[in-house]
């Protein structure tokens, strides 16, 4: 789940662990995101093995490895000139030279947002959530889960409920991620501090 791959010319993201099942991939809006087509690392490369040997403690699964080469065979991708100095150029209408800017675009991690309550939701709360957020959430056992994965960020706009909704549904926060059934979940707990309540 979360891998990005080109399907034809359209970028898709896996919404669950799978073995290439088409229904487990959804198109991604936007372009230029780092994806599987950008992989070029061979795990037998010496620099990579040397780097791995510097890690201490139990291995942590890697999200990715980026190697930045300041000089390479393609001058268009090098920030240094032939003398090893920072490459700068004058742009039309500018008096000062500017350096090249390279951008790596990463799509933020997407998870299923799972809403829970330690002592379970009351019948009244269940009815309120199903009425006001039923288009976005499915009831799974005693929890409510977003129908599709949602991207995580430190700052997010309000959860897109109908403005007339009487229920406040908080956003999930990065850092509280669990796995299960081949999916990634971000748990959001309702309690006395974070209750299911009408919006103020």
Spatial shape: elongated
Number of strands: 9
Task: Report the β-strand fraction as a percent range.
Answer: 15-25%
Structural class of the helices, strands and pairings? mainly beta
Helix content: under 10%
Number of separate domains = 3
Mean pLDDT: 82
Please provide the ordered H/E string of secondary-structure elements: EEEHEHEEEEE
First and last CA, distance: 36 Å
* Largest β-sheet summary: 6 strands, mixed
pLDDT < 50 stretches = none
Number of helices: 2
Rounded Rg: 23 Å
Q: Helices and strands in order, then pairings?
A:
Elements: E1 4-7, E2 10-14, E3 25-27, H1 46-52, E4 110-117, H2 123-133, E5 137-140, E6 143-146, E7 150-151, E8 177-180, E9 183-190
Parallel strand pairs: 4-9
Antiparallel strand pairs: 1-2, 2-3, 4-6, 4-7, 5-6, 8-9
Molecular structure report:
The radius of gyration is 23 Å and the shape is elongated. It folds into 3 domains: 4-63, no CATH class; 67-103, no CATH class; 110-190, no CATH class. The model has no long low-confidence stretch (mean pLDDT 82). The strands form 2 sheets. Strands 4, 5, 6, 7, 8 and 9 form a 6-stranded mixed sheet that branches. Strands 1-2-3 form a 3-stranded antiparallel sheet, with no helix packed on it. It has helices at 46-52, 123-133; strands spanning 4-7, 10-14, 25-27, 110-117, 137-140, 143-146, 150-151, 177-180, 183-190. It is mainly β. Helices cover 9% and strands 21% of the residues. The two termini are 36 Å apart.
């Amino acid at each position: 789940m979360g891998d990005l791959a080109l399907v034809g010319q359209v970028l898709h993201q896996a919404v669950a662990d799978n073995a290439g099942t088409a229904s487990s991939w959804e198109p991604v809006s936007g372009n230029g995101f780092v994806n599987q087509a950008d992989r070029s690392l061979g795990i037998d490369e010496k620099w990579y093995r040397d780097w791995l040997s510097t890690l201490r403690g139990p291995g942590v699964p890697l999200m990715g490895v980026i190697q930045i080469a300041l000089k390479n065979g393609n001058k268009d991708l090098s920030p240094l000139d032939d003398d090893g100095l920072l490459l700068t150029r004058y742009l039309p209408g500018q008096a000062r030279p500017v350096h090249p800017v390279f951008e790596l675009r990463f799509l933020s991690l997407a998870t299923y947002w799972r809403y829970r309550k330690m002592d379970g939701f009351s019948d009244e709360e269940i009815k309120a959530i199903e009425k006001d957020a039923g288009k976005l959430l499915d009831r799974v056992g005693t929890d409510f889960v977003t129908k599709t994965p949602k991207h995580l960020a430190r700052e997010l706009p309000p959860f897109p409920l109908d403005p007339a909704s009487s229920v406040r549904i908080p956003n999930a926060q990065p850092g509280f991620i669990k796995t299960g059934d081949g999916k990634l979940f971000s748990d959001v707990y309702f309690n006395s501090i974070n209750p299911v309540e009408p919006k103020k």
